Amino acid sequence: MLLLVRKDLLQAWRTFRLPALILTGVFFALLDPLTAKFMPQILGLFGDELEGLAEMIPEMGPAEALLSFYGDLIQIAALVLIIIAMGAVALERERGIAAWVLTRPVDRGAYLWSKYLALLIGMFIAVAASGALAIAYTASLFGSVPLSGALWALFFISLFLMLILAVTVTASAFCRSQLAAGGIGLAFLLAIFLPELLFGHTELVRYFPHVLSTGHAGHLLSGLEDWTYFIPAAVITLILAQLCIAVAAHYFKQAEL
After folding, report:
1. SS3 of residue 155 by DSSP
2. How far apart are CA 227 and CA 157, in angstroms?
3. In a 3-state reduction of DSSP, which class is residue 201?
4. 119 in a domain, yes or no?
5. What radius of gyration do the chain's Cα atoms show?
């Protein structure tokens, strides 16, 4: 298993999938704090009309700058993650690579888990690197940063992205087309926020994975919520992610290549 994970990590790096994810996070880690700091001045450069708009924009602090970065992790980085993961299995089946690898003494379940774990490791590296950069850069621009809340929010967002990854890899195992797998991953990313409409004002909302995303992460940065509030959603997210891969591995062991 370790050899397979290492092989898939190297493959993700050489095919620029992992660097693309890291560079996406780093780009927004630099852009969002800078934009939050200088947005009024930037708008003021475009004439009197936008200068009036700039005066209406409230002054942003470190929490708002980090929240903007976390929002881009949830939206843009999640899309990049889906694009990277949608071909994890489906593309190799299309090209006959999966059949060639599995003619060796490689268990199908191990093959699928290695794909998921390699991408998961890459995702955590990208989130950790870009998150550390965003926190450090925000601190250099604004001064003090709510460090504890920022780190907890980053951790919970990582769990949220883990579930998106697990669903996309599962779809890649079930579908022979990587585009179909990507479509399922994208549909899940959109549908995961539906419980907010139904249960947003009830205590049940604490048990849904979307709670780990941007809007509620902002409560950690502002001190409105303690990290323990997110434990139910974190546990359920972990269970759902591993269940998805377990189901995909069970199916893949019997599927035709």
Report:
1. helix
2. 12
3. coil
4. yes
5. 20
Half-sphere exposure of 134 (CA within 13 A, CB side): 37
| Cβ-Cβ contacts under 8 Å for 109 (sequence gap 6 or more) | 249, 250, 252, 253
Q: What is the pLDDT of residues 112-128, one digit of tens each?
A: 899 999 999 999 999 99
Say which residue the tokens 């022979």 belong to.
176
How many Å separate Cα 218 from the centre of its chain? 16
Picking from 15, 186, 189, the residue whose alpha carbon sits closest to that of residue 88 is 15
For residue 96, being part of any structural domain is answered with yes
Domain hosting 6: range is: 2-32+61-254
Residue 174: what are its φ and ψ, rounded to 5°? -80, -30
Determine the pLDDT at residue 26: 94
Give the span between the Cα atoms of 209 and 176, in whole angstroms. Answer: 28
Residue 142 included in any domain: yes
Calculate the alpha carbon distances from 254 to 157, 172, 249, 250 in Å: 34, 15, 9, 7
How does the average pLDDT of the chain come out, rounded? Answer: 84
Instruction: Report if residue 48 sits inside a domain.
Output: no
Amino acid at 28: F
pLDDT at 83 > cutoff 90: yes
Query: Residue 55 pLDDT > 70, yes or no?
Result: no
Distance CA 221, CA 63 (A): 6
Mean pLDDT across 26-39: 87
